Each structure stands twice: as structure tokens, then as C-alpha cells.
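Researcher: We plan to redesign the surface later, but first we want a full-length starting point. C-alpha cells attached.
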């Protein structure tokens, strides 16, 4: 299990989540100001901050990766998933998910 922190820490950014409803359905979360600007421009509404993600590796953190895929009629809908396990990252790649890159770090939870 992993977790974001509920409040800001040094070198952390808010993990903001956005939603767009039908006919295109998607929920997307990001710490990137540029990605936030893009999704707002596409008509997504901000639904809140899930927590704070370190932008630099600190003790007890693992890399947070994001994958995405299009689905539905005409591939109009999109799904995003965050993963921390390299095996899960590879499994999704084999299922043709798109690698969106490393998105920060999350804390290990005992």
C-alpha cells in the first residue's frame, strides 16, 4: 500500500483530480501545472486535492507512474491509473496502455 500526505511538505505538490462527464468520461489526477491547464482547457472540472506528492525522492517513498487508455465507442472515453509496482506497469503495457511517465513519489504504508 502507498499513500500521499494529507498536508504539504517541503518539495511536494498537490495531486489535483479532474473529471469530465458524458459524452467523454474521464477522471485524471496530476501534480503538473501544465497538465492541469490542459485538462481545464478541455472542459474538465477540478474535483479536489487527493493529497500532496513529493517531487523529489525522500525516505520511504516509491515512484508513482501513470498509465492511460482510451475505450468506449470511438475510443471517446479515457481511463487513467496510477501504479507503483514495476510488474503492474509491465502488465498494463502488454495490454496496450499508454505510459504517461513518472508523476512523483508516494509514501509506503506499513
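Model: Full-length starting sequence:
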Amino acid at each position: 500500500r502507498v499513500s500521499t500526505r494529507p498536508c504539504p511538505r517541503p518539495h511536494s505538490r498537490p495531486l489535483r483530480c479532474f473529471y469530465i462527464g458524458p459524452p467523454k468520461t474521464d477522471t485524471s489526477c496530476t501534480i503538473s501545472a501544465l497538465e492541469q491547464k490542459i485538462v481545464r482547457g478541455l472542459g474538465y472540472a477540478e474535483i479536489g486535492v487527493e493529497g500532496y506528492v513529493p517531487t523529489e525522492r525522500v525516505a520511504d517513498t516509491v515512484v508513482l507512474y501513470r498509465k492511460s487508455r482510451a475505450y468506449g465507442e470511438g475510443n471517446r472515453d479515457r481511463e487513467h491509473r496510477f501504479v507503483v509496482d514495476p510488474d503492474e506497469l509491465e502488465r498494463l503495457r502488454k495490454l496496450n496502455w499508454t505510459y504517461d511517465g513518472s508523476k512523483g513519489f508516494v509514501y509506503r504504508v506499513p
